Amino acid sequence: MSRLFFTLGFFILTCYSCIVEVQCTPIANEEEMSAAYEEVRNDDSAITWAVFIYDGKNIILGGTGIEYDEMLNQFADDARVFAYVRLITGDEMSKRAKFAFITWIGTSVSAMKRAKVSTDKAFVKQVMPEYGKEFLADDKSDVAKDVVLAELGKAGGANYGSAR
Predict the structure, then answer these.
(1) Residues contacting residue 162 through CB under 8 Å, at least 6 positions apart
(2) What is the pLDDT of residues 67-106, one digit of tens each?
(3) What average pLDDT score do residues 37-55 get?
(4) How far apart are CA 118 and CA 26, in angstroms?
């Protein structure tokens, strides 16, 4: 009887371990996501943004690009998107790259999918931990380039302009 119990107990532990392992990241390809993140961070790269989209329950690389408006085109009313973008801030005396992390949840996204974004964001941030400012938006005007640049400038500290 104890052997059966032990065997049953082992089976339960084994099953529990499997359940824990099955409950893992929604990121389909962490290496691909990390490579895109590093490409955006690389000052020698022309790539200035990367977006990550949902493919079913998985988060995949949706694309990379150079022009900010191309990134905004990924933000549809029915889409859930995580974006990482590099922008140049500063003044005539000091130019520097700053990074923004944008979570887009379109206005047509269901309540359940909206809730899933909040839990999945933690997994995405593990792959992309370095950014100056985080944005949550459902309206493109909230993440227009000039708005994001202004917020990154505020988050970046001193500006040493000529004060003209």
Answers:
(1) 91, 92, 93
(2) 999 999 999 999 999 999 999 987 777 788 999 999 999 9
(3) 97
(4) 12
Which amino acid belongs to residue 25?
T
Chain mean position to CA 133: 12
Residue 75 burial (CB < 10 Å; 0-12/13-18/19+)?
buried
Q: Which amino acid is at 48?
A: T
Q: What is the 3-state secondary structure of the chain?
A: CHHHHHHHHHHHHHHHHHHHHHCCCCECCHHHHHHHHHHHHCCCCCCCEEEEEEECCEEEEEEEECCHHHHHCCCCCCCEEEEEEEEEEEECCEEEEEEEEEEEECCCCCHHHHHHHHHHHHHHHHHCCCCCEEEEECCHHHHCHHHHHHHHHHHCCCCCCCCC
* Full-model pTM: 0.81
CA distances from 76 to 35, 72, 107, 139 (A): 25, 8, 9, 10
